[in-house]
Structures are given as C-alpha cells and as structure tokens.
Amino acid sequence: MSFVDGGEEKKKKDDTSEKEYGFKNIACHVWAIDGYKDETTAKSVNSRYNNSANRLKVANNEASRNEALKTLVGVARVSETTGEQIIVYGGFRRGQNAPEHMWMEYKNKVYETMPDYDLWVADADAKTRNCPPLENAPFPSGGVAKYATFLTVNQRDYLTKAGHLKPG
Question: Which one of 10, 52, 82, 140 is at 20 to 30 Å from 168 when CA atoms are compared?
C-alpha cells in the first residue's frame, strides 16, 4: 500500500483560491464515480449523487445493492469515459440505501480517498476489494456492491498527474 501525491499546491492559510480546497475536500464517491478535475466538477458530481441517493430504496441483498451502485454511477458521472475498464465498488451496511464508502479498481490496483486524505492505492486482492485500506471495518458478506464500467477522463488525468500512470 502506498500514498499517491496528486502534485497539488499545498494549502496556504491566507489563500482562498480553488487550490485551497482541492482533492482533499472530495468525498470517496466523487473519486470512485468521476475522479477529480476541479472543485466545480466535484461539487456537481456530489450534488447529483446526493440527490439520487436520497431517493433510493435498497433491499438488504447483493443484487439490489449492485443496482443501486449502477444507478448512482450513471446519475452522478459528468465526465467522458476512456473506454478502459474499471470496477467501482460500494460498501453497504444493513439498512443503508447508498454506500457508506466507495472505491475503484483499475489495472489491478484499488484507489480510494476520503475527505482530508490524498489518494491511496493498494494492490487489488480479495481483502482490498472488500475492505480497502482507509475503511476501518470490513463490510458484511454481500455488503460490497460492484459495477463494471469505464475509467473517466478525470480519473485518468488525475492518476497521470499524480505520477501513477504514464501519459498517453
């Protein structure tokens, strides 16, 4: 497991520019669904996600959770896709209508974040697919939904900027 620095400028106490907020201000679902380009795009993804999540009714079974995750990704994603396969994961606990935590897998690596964290990456295996490193407690059996989709341009560009992917 390692830490990926996105190469963003560090915060300055007196700086109220967009750089002050940056990647560390986004929710896990914003990264897993769309990646990070700027604060405006992140807020749009977050708003779309929240509006849809508040209307979902999810049964306590894997099929219903998978469908909810697919719906949330479809509604909240705003950037173009690249055609490269990823898997978006969402961890649910009993009675939740939206995932408690979300992360994505790309090229056998799991990528995740939470507010106040930079991007974390770990090798994809049974453990990290079901309980990534920033999650405190494993999800119950059947609690992790997954949705095969495509890497977004924003995800690709952020990973490239962070030095994790080679350009092109």
Answer: 10
